Amino acid sequence: MFKKNVLMVLVMMLSVVLLLAGCKGKEERVLPETEAAALATYVPPGELDEYYMFASGGHSGQVYVVGIPSMRLIRIVPVFTPDVATGYGIDEGTKKMLGGLIWGDAHHPNFSETKGEYDGRWLFINDNANARIARINLKTFYTEEILGPIPNLIGTHAGAFVTPNTEYVFTATRFSIPIPHYTYASAEQYKDRYKACVAAISVHPQTGKMDVAWEVAFPPVDFDLSDAGKEVSYGWTFFTCYNSEMAHKDLEVEASQKDRDFILALNWKVAEQAAKDPSKYSMIGGVKVIDPTKAPGIAYWVPCPKSPHGVDVSPDGKYFIGGGKLSPVVAVFDFEKLQKAIEAKDFEGDFSGVPVVRYESVNVAEVPVGLGPLHTQFDDKGYAYTSLFVESAVAKWKLGTWEVVDKIQVHYNIGHLVTAEGDSRSPDGKYLVALNKLSKDRFLGVGPSHPENHQLIDISGEKMTLLYDSPSQPEPHYAVMIKADKLSTLKVFPKEEGRPNSVWQAEDTKVVRQGAKVDVYMIAVRSHFTPDIVEVNQGDEVYFHITNIENDVDITHGFAICLYNVDMQVEPGETRTVKIVANKPGVFPFYCTNFCSALHQEMQGYLLVKPKL
Ligand code: K7E
Ligand code: CUA
Q1: What burial class does residue 38 get, using C-beta atoms within 10 Å of its C-beta: 0-12 exposed, 13-18 middle, 19+ buried?
Q2: Which of 200, 455, 481, 599 has its CA 20 to 30 A from that of 187?
Q3: Could you tell me the sign of the dihedral formed by the alpha carbons of 492, 496, 497, 502, in that order?
């Protein structure tokens, strides 16, 4: 209601501006499309966005949280990279989770699902560099778990793709290597000794805890992307690959020889059974690795034009669509036809003992979308939207008739694109965001490096219309968009009396020494730390366990120690631990780094380190 009133006021103001402009001459009149776009993206002060968009941060190792339609950056969630502002990677818990690595290459975020719908519980994201999958809790927006390095995979680009009830998060290796990790085989032994593995990561239905359930080993192709089957294709998952030539060098040339590579169709229900039968798997790197030639029915290769990138399953699960980045078409495959071809053994032959299904028997369309098709998303009206990297455009086409009905230019060189709830079984339509790799001239210059450009596009009408350009830092690959009311975020961590290392009142704070190990149980509350004088001996191992006992929304305290390389945040109701080795003697102030009250500046204390004699 309020929003409508504000909009009316805005329209009236614009009318007045237009009237005034009219008096001065017609050429100064604001274009109506611009007004419409401004109104469509304007979220008045005090109002909230309709959707959350979670965009991967690529090699920044982070996740960007953006409000739609305003395109406002709301939060950066550190995932694979330490973050000094929050203390992520500095406090003991998150430091352990990062395992000594200081970066990751975050590509594909995906929501947990229940019955094919986003359920707002977790966000999974892959690390393409170090074969890891992270899980972010959507109540706290904290990275809660990082699994990996996943044995036998390296460069888990084809992840993190979630099945309709979050039974599994799937990922597959982009680079093939001799397995297990840290095995040597010369590059000339590529075809025989290197393997491309697909991994099924199980997710505990209540806690979300991830485990490597099983893997399947294939010849050394490069798996690229993935999507899980749903509805009619439930129980299957699909992976694109390039380099079916199995070249080990000069891939730019060598891996672009064949006119068709493959989409791998994997039946995970059959794989689950094979993982219970020791004659079908071997233990490699501590994981059950299934040999697909010993488990008939587990996998089929579907030929796909040429070096495909994305594979996307339509909301009804009937079609899986390959984006042939070196071909001007997207290839559409019919899941029921795939089932018939499998039944009739309608194969072209096999590839390393796994059947290759006849292309003509499963392909139902080659949609001439344009140059450089990469990824496809869906709306609520039966349309698909494909990103065209080479052409810098988005093509809109109809599922079933395969007719291209609209195209819009984007600026420039789009990678992924995302529609509202576009990977669920019931996409919302409305909004599409084009995740463009280059912005060139679209923003104020900041030197030779330019931001990425995210463009918000209205897809509610017949024609797509561009609404907004928004800069993004390096380098979103994929993003997912969820209705804001599906998330219920935590306001304050609930007080738990028995929580390890927490204290809740000044009387209970203490400093406990055991040999050279010192535990400081401290509280933080506006506007002091208790204790605020801590004395230790040079060489002591000191653990600061800090509980922020505030019960108020947004009252965060920081804890920094000068010259000891420590800063972290402690949220209301939270306990965090940071460790130092007190190897430098002297007096070191500690203080609150997060502005919390009028006396924030007074929120300070001293760490005194007595020198060794
Ligand atoms: Cu950049 Cu999905 Cu890693 Cu395509 S990927 S663009
Ligand atoms: Cu506590 Cu500033």
Answers
A1: middle
A2: 200
A3: negative
What is the amino acid identity at position 207?
T
For residue 337, give every residue at least 6 positions away whose Cβ sits within 8 Å of its Cβ, in sequence order, or none.
361, 362, 364
- Verify whether ligand 1 is closer than 6 Å to residue 174 (CB atom): no
209-260 confidence digits (pLDDT tens): 999 999 999 999 999 999 999 999 999 999 999 999 999 999 988 888 889 9
Residue 439: Cβ within 10 Å count: 20
523-539 burial, b at 16+ Cβ within 10 Å, e below that, comes to: bbbbbbbbbeebebbee
374 lines ligand 1 (CB under 6 A): yes
Ligand 2 atom nearest to 595, measured from its CA = 2
C-alpha to C-alpha distances, 500 to 194, 496, 516, 575, nearest whole angstrom: 46, 9, 21, 9
User: Looking up tokens 């050394």, which residue turns up?
Assistant: 220
Cβ of residue 571 lying under 6 Å from some atom of ligand 2? no
Instruction: Between 170 and 31, name the one with better pLDDT.
Output: 170
According to DSSP, the residues that pair with 351 across neighbouring strands are: 354
**Closest atom of ligand 2 relative to the 555 alpha carbon:** 1
Cα(455)–Cα(176) distance, integer angstroms: 35
Average pLDDT value for residue range 155-171: 97
Strands (E), 540-581: 541-548, 557-561, 566-570, 575-581
Q: Bridge-partner residues for 581, per DSSP? A: 541
Residue bearing the CA closest to ligand 2, atom 1: 557
416 CB within 6 A, ligand 1 = yes
Cβ 596 under 6 angstroms from ligand 2? yes
Q: Which atom of ligand 1 is nearest to the CA of 437?
A: 6
Tell me which ligand sits closest to the C-alpha of residue 128: 1
Please state, in angstroms and as integers, the Cα–Cα distance from residue 569 to each residue in 112, 228, 257, 289, 555, following that order.
Answer: 28, 38, 53, 42, 10
Beta bridge partners of 536: 609
- Inter-CA distances, 13 with 6, 69, 423, 523, Å: 10, 21, 39, 51
Rounded CA Rg of the chain: 27
User: How does pLDDT run across 292-347, given as a tens digit for each residue?
Assistant: 999 999 999 999 998 999 999 999 999 999 998 888 999 999 999 999 999 999 99
pTM (global) more than 0.85: yes
Q: Whose CA is nearest to atom 3 of ligand 1?
A: 107
Q: Which residues pair with 366 in a beta bridge?
A: 331
* Interatomic CA distance for residues 525 and 549, integer angstroms: 6
150 secondary structure, DSSP code = P
Contacts with 244 (C-beta within 8 Å, 6 or more apart), sequence order: 221, 258, 260, 261, 262, 351
Q: Supply 115's token pair.
A: 């019955």
Provide the angle, in degrees to the nearest 10, between the axes of the packed helices 32-41 and 2-24. 160
